[in-house]
Amino acid sequence: MQERRVDVAIIGAGSAGLGAYHAARAHTDSVIMIEGGPYGTTCARVGCMPSKLLIAAADAAHHARDADAFGIHIDGHLRIDGRDVMARVQRERDHFVDGVIDSVESIDADQRLRGHATLESTNTLIIDDHTRVHAKRIVIATGSSPDYPDFLKAAGDRLITNNDLFYLDDLPESVAVFGPGVVGLELGQALSRLGVRVRMFGVSGGIGPISDPAIREYADRQFNTEFYLDPEAETRHVALIDERVEVTFIERGSEREVTEQFDYLLAATGRPPNLEGLKIAHADLRMNEGLPVFDRYTLQCQRQDGTPSCIFIAGDANAELPLLHEASDEGRIAGDNAGRYPDIRAGQRRSMLTVVFTDPQIAIVGLSWTEIEKRPRDSYAIGEVNFEHQGRARVMRQNQGLLRVYGEQGSGLFLGAEMLGPDAEHLAHLMAWCHQQRMTVAQMLEMPFYHPCVEEGLRSALRDLNGRLRLGPAMAQHCMDTGPGS
């Protein structure tokens, strides 16, 4: 077996691993990056980018169907060619993947090692059966993989995850989606708009990352106008019958038992960290519910005795914030600290920003409702705007949604927001920037708002919040932001 000795070993060449590699290289050339799977990152290969490609196709179909409302009439029957849709998804997906592969392969070949890593000790890794790596410091950036409960396995080879969906040659006729989280909502709605019969089943009552009950209730109603969604479904039976997935469930509303068959069952029930095959027990790490205990500002793990370890963990592997920009940030922090060890530095963590690319879009900024409601009730206030009455949204026929903004009593500090509505990806960025700058609601209202635009809806919500914080006049009614001086 080959023996290698390095200052820093990084397990994983995804978004976090690449960030860790480049940060560690600023301190030492003795770095090796280990990858057992295909290069290309989860985001580029089976996550962010192919899902947005599918959503873009779905949006095109949706806008074509809705053109009549604008007086634009498309003659004849709208035809969606599933093979053409998937061909473009795969073609553009491969373009993004190739870009990542080129970036990885530009790294010195001596600093890349192929194979699956397992921990032999705190400072030693075994790579398959060919290499033992002795590393002074280790960064775990192994990412995550789809997982699903055992009862779904009854769907046999018709059980797919997002890792499989983007390799289909054609759109299916029907799909049962289990899990109305971020992945399930995005893919389920996109498939529905592309003509696929979709039924979506949840268990806990959750819809995406939404925690604000008012917004969750609105989202439940809105998504059910397009496809069947039961966030608290009672599923009685799953079986594979003649190459079709048979699902028996209690139908929402009627409470009768229904059995339907589908081409596929799409499991979108979570992505736990890839730690199981790492033999992490050999690393003398303090664990909590199967995950290493770590400092979120340094990404440094703890030994079992509570002292700092020479192992760092970043990205989806630590299960804290499974978002690409967070994985990249964490990778840079972990790699920087592994490179400069033992001179550990706290890295900057950005304001929380989550976006779900459904229609209407979902966004969470800063503190979520779950975090807000833990505070004393008289310490915060809530402002809101309903986009059904917002001028620009109504012009575009995108006037569905609700924005709720949270502020701190006394200081007027902007605390956070949850939203379902048009252009949420853009409004969320504005709010996240304000939150990170620790702006007050009054300071946000001093910023320019052009007319007419959806951003004026944010201004309405902030005005409402400012009044409820007793820092400005109460709003007599929510204006429609349709004229000068509004």
TrEMBL record:
The keyword Nucleotide-binding applies. Keywords: FAD, Flavoprotein, NAD, Nucleotide-binding, Oxidoreductase. The active site is at H451. InterPro entries: FAD/NAD-bd_sf (IPR036188), FAD/NAD-binding_dom (IPR023753), FAD/NAD-linked_Rdtase_dimer_sf (IPR016156), Mn/Fe_SOD_N_sf (IPR036324), Pyr_nuc-diS_OxRdtase (IPR001100), Pyr_nucl-diS_OxRdtase_dimer (IPR004099). Disulfide bonds join C43-C48. One of its GO terms (molecular function) is flavin adenine dinucleotide binding. It comes from the Bacteria. Transmembrane segments: none annotated. Residues 7-331 form the FAD/NAD(P)-binding domain. Residues 354-460 form the Pyridine nucleotide-disulphide oxidoreductase dimerisation domain. NAD(+) binds at G179, P180, G181, V182, V183, G184, L185, E186, G270. Binds 1 FAD per subunit. Pfam families: Pyr_redox_2 (PF07992), Pyr_redox_dim (PF02852). FAD binds at K52, T142, G143, S144, D316. It is an enzyme of class 1 (oxidoreductase). PANTHER family: MERCURIC REDUCTASE (PTHR43014), PYRIDINE NUCLEOTIDE-DISULFIDE OXIDOREDUCTASE RCLA-RELATED (PTHR43014:SF4). Belongs to the class-I pyridine nucleotide-disulfide oxidoreductase family. This is Dihydrolipoyl dehydrogenase. The lineage of its organism: Bacteria, Pseudomonadati, Pseudomonadota, Gammaproteobacteria, Oceanospirillales.
